[in-house]
Design brief:
Blueprint (H helix, E strand, L loop, with lengths): L3 E7 L5 H10 L8 E7 L6 H11 L4 E5 L7 H10 L4 E4 L5 E2 L3 H12 L3 E4 L1 E4 L31 E4 H6 L13 H11 L3 E4 L5 E4 L13 H18 L4 H15 L12 H18 L9 H12 L2 H6 L46
GO molecular function: hexosyltransferase activity
InterPro entries: Glyco_trans_2-like (IPR001173), Nucleotide-diphossugar_trans (IPR029044), TarS/TarP_linker (IPR054028)
Length: about 350
């Protein structure tokens, strides 16, 4: 049994895929202690040939699965997880790469700390955004809330595989977007110990220079439906109270807010109305006691959605993601399947729009 299985879900990530796979070959943990499960989700950019080149050269290290494009990273991630044999499993973005000692350091520390989930410090390459707050210092154990975890819900973590299998945690294949977040949240809720390794940067999150080769785009209504699933998963896994509110706050701050970038104004009037109405439902259901704690900019944009002021949302779109240093890592590994909108600013100022507006249900 290998110590760690690395799952790489691939869809059109050339030329970045080459460095990703090279970084796995170079791991100091040694090939005998690891396996790499590459699931090619119907790449059309030459990535399949590059994967085959590595598998031919290192047949004892790489296992390759090819499948038709599934429309998102959930299905290839589940396929790789089903094949994993390691004590731990790690998910690596196909355009990201690891420091040579990454797996060795993570496995060593997870064994010493008896970690079920371990986060390693990330570094941003290009304009990619990575979380910072959770990586202020190494810690054998962190809390679900209070140490920055809600802002670090990407699946780029080391998971004890027995935990994943005991609770049958899998990616929701009906979610074209955001499917890693319910997976990570459930693993963290079930974990006996969540740890952070922050002494040095081990994971390099890469922002692609060119977002071409995008053959699948989730429409705003699809992204809204996926955002609703995020709120549902939080409610399913966490009791009402500050802990649940902390994760809801993250989803309002990022996923719901980003629905209202400049692309919103380019939608048909009917779609704009439906997206706005759907967001208003989520705000009414989950916003009380949460939205008041967002920054003023986000409160104002989401208040417009809650009121159904579609034209005002078109005139004052959401800001460009990335202003908050503890925000969820950028999703360039997902961008081949999904292109999220970006935006510009909404003028600040004025009174708190949420004061007294919502009533606790």
């Amino acid at each position: 049994m290998p110590d760690v299985s690395v799952v790489v879900a691939v869809y059109n990530t050339m030329p970045y895929l080459t460095r990703c796979l090279e970084s796995l070959v170079a791991q100091t943990i040694g090939h005998r202690r690891m396996e790499v499960l590459v699931v090619d989700d119907g790449s059309t950019d030459g990535g399949s040939k590059e994967i085959a080149r590595f598998a031919t050269r290192y047949p004892y290290l790489f296992t390759v699965v090819r499948q038709p494009n599934s429309g998102g990273p959930a299905a290839p991630s589940n396929r790789g997880l089903a094949l994993a044999r390691g004590r731990y499993v790690f998910f690596l973005g196909a355009d990201d790469h690891l420091a040579p000692q990454a797996l060795e350091r993570m496995v060593e520390r997870a064994d010493a700390w008896e970690s079920d989930v371990l986060l390693c410090k990330m570094a941003a390459v290009g304009e990619r955004t990575v979380p910072e707050g959770v990586f202020r210092a190494s810690a054998p154990a962190i809390r679900l809330l209070g140490d920055g975890l809600p802002w670090a819900l990407s699946n780029t973590k080391l998971f004890r595989r027995s935990l994943i299998e005991e609770h049958r945690i899998r990616y929701d294949e009906t979610m074209p977007a955001f499917s890693d977040q319910p997976f990570v949240l459930e693993a963290c809720v079930r974990a006996r110990r969540i740890s952070v390794l922050a002494e040095q940067e081990l994971y390099y999150a890469v922002r692609r220079k060119d977002s071409g080769n995008i053959t699948f785009r989730a429409c705003p209504e699809t992204r809204l439906a996926c955002a609703e699933r995020l709120f549902d998963s939080v409610c399913r896994l966490l009791e009402p109270g500050p802990l649940r509110d902390g994760f809801h706050r993250r989803h309002f701050h990022v996923e719901l807010y980003q629905l209202f970038g400049p692309d919103f104004a380019r939608l048909s009037p009917q779609v704009r109305e439906r997206v706005c109405a759907g967001a208003a439902r989520l705000i009414g259901a989950h916003g009380d006691g949460v939205l008041e704690e967002l920054d003023e900019h986000r409160r104002r944009v989401l208040e417009l959605a809650w009121r159904g002021e579609v034209e005002a949302l078109c005139a004052h779109p959401a800001d460009r993601p990335g202003g908050r240093p503890e925000r969820e890592p950028g999703r360039s590994a997902l961008v081949r399947w999904l292109l999220a909108p970006v935006g510009r600013g909404l003028p600040a100022g004025g009174e708190d729009p949420w004061a007294g507006r919502l009533r606790r249900r």
